Amino acid sequence: MRTVSVRRRKGYAHSLTARHHTLIADEPPEDGGTDAGPRPTELLALSLASCTAITLEMYADRKEWDLGDLEVDVEYDLNVDGMSRLEVIIKPGAPLSEEQAERLRVIAAKCPVHRALTGEIEITDRVEPGPPAEPAHSA
To answer: Using one digit for the tens of pLDDT, what is the confidence trace for 124-134?
Structure first.
């Protein structure tokens, strides 16, 4: 198992650390945050978009295809009470044949984040004990 960490900065802003990289997540002011970073749901969509782009670029490099300045957008509606929807839109910056475009669509579904989101996921929550309480001082 790998571990990433999140620690509160101020308000709803949190520092997100993975290996030696640190990002910030927050909520916009209308939801009580300071907009110091993307919302967690935006980070999820960004994870899918970036994983898709990297997977496609690795595939294209092996095939020696020119994708130009590839752009990947994700339109999403995350519904906690029902069906969530994410649509990955792949925009190559170079012309592709219909066969290449179809192959990229198939390869996009093989990115690790896509597979994790569409596969079975088991999430467990564990609360560890906090630090011991300071003893009360008598006067």
So the answer is: 999 999 898 88
